[in-house]
Amino acid sequence: MTAAVPGTELVPVSIEAEIAALARRHRAAGGVGLQVLNLIGGKAENLLERLPDSVKNRLESSTAKALELSLKAASGSRRAVPDQKGWLNTALATAMGAAGGAGGLPTAMAELPVTVTVLLRAIQGIAAEYGFDPDMPEIRRECLAVFASAGPLATDDGADLGFLATRVTLTGATVHGLIGKVAPRLATAMGQKLAAQTIPVLGAAAGAATNYAYTSYYQEMAHVQFGLLKLSQQTGRPRAELVAALQKQIG
User: Fold this and answer.
1) Residue 12: which H helix or E strand, with range?
2) Residue 197: which residues within 8 A CB-CB, separation 6 or more?
3) Lowest mean pLDDT among 13-27, 82-96, 229-243
4) Among candidates 130, 135, 134, 122, which has minimal Cα distance to 219?
5) Which of 22, 64, 192, 208 satisfies CB 3.0 to 4.6 Å to 183 for a cystine?
6) What is the pLDDT of residues 177-191, one digit of tens each?
7) pTM above 0.85, yes or no
């Protein structure tokens, strides 16, 4: 027996249960970001104004470079160090954020590529959890595509689902080309994180809080990404149809 999802094809009840679980993960992803904004006493759109122009001007190129280095480091480390539990990834990133924020902008900038590596490694671990090989080119692209979501401080719920809908245009992209596509979105998210870490007095606390939020967020979005991919493979349903069902569930 099937149950209709408004605006989509008929979706079996078993699929609806999976979609509902992914929707809960999606809602959980953004919740921590609000706590961070309350901590720093500002709005996400105002954070980037705190950064010097020299930093803002090279943020996108720095982020793209960090992604290039992180992809190699994260993939290489999987051969030596097993994938960790989500809570351990979050704890590690939180500690790094505190250290990065303690020294202001210089240490926060130095910490950025390390944090991106931890995030990417966590995303790869989740891909493996769903039975995918993170070393396969198509799964590498899927892992990078998670960074095209909006980020934990974004207020537009539609924006953090946009990366799922753009899969059709990204499947043929090389890894380098995909980095060029996702770097602008990730640069905005990382810029907000850097700005929060430079707030006087709150530097270390804001650094820990933002890294906690970012790690929690991207891990949850990775579950959404690979959960949909796995569900599509198991049911034979086009992923675009499942994304539409997820959007209806969230909306």
Assistant:
1) strand 10-12
2) 97, 100, 101, 104, 105, 108, 203, 206, 207, 210
3) 82-96
4) 122
5) 64
6) 888 888 888 888 888
7) no
